[in-house]
Design brief:
30% helix, 3-stranded antiparallel β-sheet, single chain, 9 helices, disordered N terminus, alpha/beta, 266 residues, 2 domains, elongated
Length: 266
């Protein structure tokens, strides 16, 4: 039997680990750094940087876990995150360990699938497919109980205290009492994980740019069995909490039985 080869760290992992080692002292819980440090680290290690240097940061803030050597230095019950502190400036910070994952015990609500077949056929990625399904099936409206409209997707902008951010999609909404809402949505497909730091910056952006609207932050995630988990997230005591969670399955309307409808009426 051939010997199994240990997977070597990729260039992003090597760069972020060296940056961490350059700053970390045992016992500290935070430190700041700048994006320009990646350039000197890559030169020292003879590693080719991506054209967009910020992609190194984006990768570990929103998509992948930090290297294990970094994770192992966190105090028990805490985890390292990377947050923006200004233009091209960031902070490694230890916060309370908080994993937002769907709860297995919740029921799945069947929704008549209104996704155009051509959209399903040509969606380019899990994230894009999820955003399209949420939009065409009005899952934001159904989940929050408001009438909502997509304002912009992949919004790239800046926040004074954070720097550059990107919001997957942002909605505006109104309820029967005339209250108006600003609704940032983050979509998670494939192996992507919910990023607490992303929710924090989404909420911060909405409070800064739309102070007269009520901010209701949402996260959506593909689950097994063609299900979509929807979370409403709030900032409480400087931590992100799940205020509401529902699971939906988009199905042909003929497959929604009388029994299903009776169960939803309870």
């Amino acid at each position: 039997m051939p010997e199994l080869r240990q997977r070597q760290p990729n260039r992003y992992q090597v760069i972020i680990l060296r940056l961490f080692e350059n700053h970390y002292i045992e016992g500290i819980t935070e430190f700041e750094f700048t994006r320009s440090e990646f350039v000197s680290i890559a030169k020292t290690l003879a590693i080719e940087l991506p054209k967009n240097v910020g992609d190194v940061i984006y990768n570990f803030r929103y998509r992948n876990e930090l290297p294990q050597n970094i994770l192992d230095t966190a105090t028990e019950g805490l985890e390292w995150i990377i947050e923006g502190t200004g233009r091209a400036r960031y902070r490694f910070l230890q916060v309370k360990l908080n994993r937002i994952v769907p709860r297995d015990e919740l029921i799945t609500i069947k929704i008549p699938d209104a996704t155009p077949e051509i959209i399903t056929a040509y969606a380019l990625s899990d994230e894009q497919s999820l955003l399209a399904k949420v939009r065409y099936n009005r899952l934001v409206d159904i989940f929050l109980g408001v009438t909502a409209f997509s304002l912009q997707n992949h919004l790239r902008t800046t926040v004074k205290s954070i720097g550059q951010i990107e919001i997957d999609e942002i909605y505006v909404g109104i309820d029967r009492n005339g209250r108006q809402f600003i609704i940032p949505v983050q979509a998670k497909g494939g192996n992507d994980r919910h990023a607490v730091v992303q929710t924090q910056q989404d909420i911060t952006y909405c409070l800064e740019k739309f102070p007269n609207l009520i901010c209701r932050a949402i996260s959506a995630q593909f689950m097994s069995g063609d299900r979509i988990a929807m979370f409403e997230l709030v900032l409480q005591d400087n931590e992100i909490r799940v205020a509401e969670e529902k699971h939906y399955r988009l199905v042909p309307s003929a497959t929604i039985s009388t029994e299903d409808l009776r169960n939803y009426a309870l």
